[in-house]
């Protein structure tokens, strides 16, 4: 006797596709850098927190910057009073043009120094430049940070991108807006929808492939994350 396996026949759609593997990326990934040096005194956001543009992420010790701004404010007010006093003298034809220009230049310098001091004070509060999710926090309270040091990373997960490379012989089968299916190892049996967003106009001469970018709406499933390994099926 020969063993036989029996299956019931069912009707399904047959589709042809191009398969490629890649890792998912966030469309926007921003490294937040400190624009001044100082000691971290407060951290207000953690990894995984959702933030909006302008939300405060952390604060640096601001005492020195605040004192400098106060000193520049006093110097500016002195220069302003001096200018106003001499301007009245000059308008009565009792002062020289040269002295008037010197007092005016001193006022302008004091104003510029005050604005710079106020700007330096604002740098002690570090905010998110974009709306998204905090992906990396690189500092702790008490750490000393330097100018231009990366302290946070913020990414926007909606949409996610899958950048794949396909052989140039298949380029005629793909167009912008075409549907795609995405699977990830962390969700076996589940399929996520995407579409072709961009097709590179050039062919890589070394590999003979073309870069195709797939857009995946991030809100359709909370399990998708940048860095995940994914299989992309472009329906042709």
Question: What labels describe this entry?
Answer:
236 residues; alpha+beta; 6-stranded antiparallel barrel; 4-stranded antiparallel beta sheet; 2 helices; elongated
Question: Your description of this structure?
Answer:
The chain is α+β, with helices and mostly antiparallel strands and 236 residues long. Helix content is 23%, strand content 37%. The protein is built from two helices and twelve strands; from the N terminus they run ββββααββββββββ. It has helices at 63-91, 97-122; strands spanning 17-33, 38-43, 50-51, 56-60, 125-127, 132-137, 144-145, 150-167, 179-184, 192-199, 209-216, 229-235. The strands form two sheets. A six-stranded antiparallel β-barrel has the order 1-8-11-10-9-12. Strands 5-4-2-7 form a four-stranded antiparallel sheet, with no helix packed on it. A hairpin with a 7-residue loop joins strand 9 and strand 10. Helix 1 (63-91) packs antiparallel against helix 2. The longest helix is centred in the N-terminal third of the chain and has 29 residues, at 63-91. The radius of gyration is 30 Å and the shape is elongated. The two termini are 44 Å apart. The mean pLDDT is 91.
């Amino acid at each position: 006797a020969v063993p036989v396996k029996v299956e019931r026949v069912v009707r399904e759609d047959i589709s042809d596709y191009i398969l490629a593997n890649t890792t998912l990326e966030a469309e926007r990934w921003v490294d937040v850098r400190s624009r001044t040096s100082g000691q971290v005194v407060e951290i207000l956001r953690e990894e995984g927190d959702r933030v909006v543009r302008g939300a405060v992420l952390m604060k640096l010790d601001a005492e020195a910057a605040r004192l400098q701004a106060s000193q520049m404010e006093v110097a500016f007010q002195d220069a302003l009073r001096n200018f106003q006093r001499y301007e009245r003298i000059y308008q009565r034809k009792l002062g020289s043009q040269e002295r008037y220009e010197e007092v005016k230049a001193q006022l302008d310098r004091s104003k510029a120094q005050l604005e710079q001091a106020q700007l330096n004070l604002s740098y002690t509060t570090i905010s998110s430049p974009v709306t998204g999710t905090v992906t990396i926090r690189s500092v702790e309270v008490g750490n000393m940070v330097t100018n231009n040091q990366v302290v946070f990373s913020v990414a926007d997960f909606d949409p996610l991108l899958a950048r794949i490379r396909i052989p140039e012989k298949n380029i005629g089968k793909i167009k912008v807006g075409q549907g795609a299916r995405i699977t990830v190892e962390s969700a076996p049996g589940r399929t996520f929808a995407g579409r072709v967003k961009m097709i590179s106009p050039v062919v890589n001469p070394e590999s003979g492939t073309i870069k195709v970018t797939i857009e995946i709406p991030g809100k359709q499933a909370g399990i998708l994350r940048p860095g995940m390994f994914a299989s992309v099926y472009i329906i042709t």
